[in-house]
Amino acid sequence: MKPFKFDSVSKIETGFKIPDNYFENIKIDFNSTPEITETKIVSFSKKWRFLVAAMIVLGLSIPIFNHYIDTSKELDPTTISNYLNYGNALSDNDFAAILDEKDIQNLQINYKLDDKSIENELLNNTNLEQYIEN
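Above: the chain sequence. Below: its structure as tokens.
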């Protein structure tokens, strides 16, 4: 690592300048006392009415605010029912138009069933006739 020399680096000017003879022209008299002004003190007992009024207004406004601001994230059953009945207006052709070839290939499922497993399912399940008829 190269040694860093502070003397060789150009200095950045701060932008602050002290006028010539500034410190020589300052006159400070340590013997004089500064003027002391009295501050007006307001007691708490005089402001209690305003404090009570503010508390009443705040106490009444919180329930009103909570009534009009509903932060519930749950849907009511009517909204869910209407969406399920009428909200799905897209047909299969609409979905196919939106999806590209790669998405359609990802949706395809290849079931590899051998003849033995199909035969066992047909023999063991007696309700298959009802499914085929309906």
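The mean pLDDT is 78.
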